[in-house]
């Protein structure tokens, strides 16, 4: 368990208190001929019980906080952990490159793949560089270009979804944000190669579904995926930020709710205490889940993959009527 997290979520205060006691005890014992192993073991057991109790019954709002935790592994963490010989491919060949949308080719478990995903960044410098994971039209047009490349060379597509939504600025609208997102969704439906998308943190609005219209949509246990952010929903329906918890409940944005509704295909368990407490373990779990689903999809021919994908999303509309 990683005790170096700097952000303390509201429901984690008791956990952090026990972690601090363990660290203090170890610090006091440094250089002293004192056996603290029994006391540390007792506190470690207490810590595990507290983490298990806190994370076993998270509310949708608490899951939203975990999904947005800045120390959760982001797109590039998964790329570096799972993709060998990754070669970034830049630009949409129309306007510019968009660093919020990561894209490139590499090898996943000896399978040549195209990788797409939104990168949020880990600190102020990288968050500004990647525009907090909010892609502009050129980002979605880059995604379309790479999906076309994948289709041409028969390479499966792996997508890591993590964005609060597409960039809402005036310049993005001027360059055709809505059209770019719609065309990206259309391209997802048209390609004749396996497409596996994983919601690794926050899947927000059309900015997320633009690369999540996949044969298989996987979702981490504490990730969220919705048509609008809880804050945006509260401001529109109640015109008050105080109603954000009610909005989160109403949106049915948790992995567990979405699995019941048939929106996603699989929930990937997170390490005890969330992905931010053991990034290495969660990256490995995501890799195993992607491989399992690719093995199911790769024997199918292109027309079958396209038909199954289209039927999947048409069925969602029928089920929710």
Please describe what this structure looks like:
The protein is of the alpha/beta class and 321 residues long. It has two domains: 48 residues; 256 residues, 2-enoyl-CoA Hydratase, Chain A, domain 1 (Alpha-Beta Complex), CATH 3.90.226.10. It is 49% helix and 15% strand. It is built from 14 helices and eight strands. Strands 1, 2, 3, 4, 5, 6, 7 and 8 form an eight-stranded mixed beta sheet that branches. It is globular, with a radius of gyration of 21 Å. The chain starts with 12 loop residues before the first helix and ends with a helix. The N terminus is likely disordered.
According to CATH, the fold-level topology of the largest domain is: 2-enoyl-CoA Hydratase, Chain A, domain 1
Largest sheet: 8 strands, mixed
User: What is the name of the CATH class of the largest domain?
Assistant: Alpha Beta
Estimate percent helicity.
40-55%
Instruction: Determine Rg (CA atoms, Å).
Output: 21 Å
Low-confidence stretches: 1-5
Mean pLDDT: 91
Q: How many domains would you count in the coordinates?
A: 2
**Termini separation (Å)?**
44 Å
Shape annotation = globular
Spell out the helices and strands N to C.
Answer: HHHHEEEHHEHHEHEEHHHEHH
Give me the CATH architecture of the largest domain, please. Answer: Alpha-Beta Complex
Number of strands: 8
Specify the number of helices.
14
Strand content: 15-25%
CATH superfamily of the largest domain: 2-enoyl-CoA Hydratase, Chain A, domain 1
Quick summary of this structure?
This protein has 321 residues and is α/β, with parallel strands linked by helices. Helices cover 49% and strands 15% of the residues. It is globular and about 65 Å long.
């Amino acid at each position: 368990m990683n005790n170096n997290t700097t952000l303390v979520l509201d429901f984690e205060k008791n956990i952090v208190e026990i972690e601090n006691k363990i660290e203090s005890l170890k610090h006091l014992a440094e250089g002293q001929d004192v056996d603290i192993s029994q006391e540390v073991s007792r506190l470690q057991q207490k810590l595990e019980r507290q983490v298990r109790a806190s994370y076993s019954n998270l509310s949708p709002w608490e899951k939203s906080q975990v999904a947005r935790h800045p120390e959760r592994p982001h797109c590039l963490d998964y790329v570096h952990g799972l993709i060998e010989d990754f070669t970034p491919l830049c630009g949409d060949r129309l306007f510019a490159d968009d660093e919020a949308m990561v894209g490139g080719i590499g090898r996943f478990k000896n399978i040549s793949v195209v990788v797409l995903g939104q990168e949020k960044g880990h600190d102020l410098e990288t968050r500004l560089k990647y525009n907090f994971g909010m892609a502009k039209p050129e980002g979605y047009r880059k995604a379309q270009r790479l999906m076309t490349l994948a289709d041409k060379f028969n390479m499966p597509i792996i997508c890591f979804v993590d964005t609060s939504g597409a960039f809402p600025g005036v310049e993005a609208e001027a360059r055709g944000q809505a059209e770019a997102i719609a065309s990206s969704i259309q391209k997802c439906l048209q390609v004749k190669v396996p497409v596996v998308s994983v919601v690794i943190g926050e899947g927000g609005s059309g900015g997320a579904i633009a690369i999540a219209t996949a044969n298989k949509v996987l979702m981490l246990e504490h990730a969220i995926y919705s048509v609008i952010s809880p804050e945006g929903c509260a401001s529109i329906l109640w015109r008050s930020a105080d109603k954000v918890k009610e909005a989160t409940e109403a949106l049915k944005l948790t992995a567990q709710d979405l699995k019941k509704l048939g929106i996603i295909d699989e929930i990937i368990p997170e390490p005890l205490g969330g992905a931010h407490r053991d990034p290495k373990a969660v990256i490995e779990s995501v890799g195993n889940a992607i491989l399992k689903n690719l093995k199911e999809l790769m024997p199918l021919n292109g027309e079958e993959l396209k038909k199954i994908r289209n039927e999947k999303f048409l069925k969602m509309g029928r089920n929710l009527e």
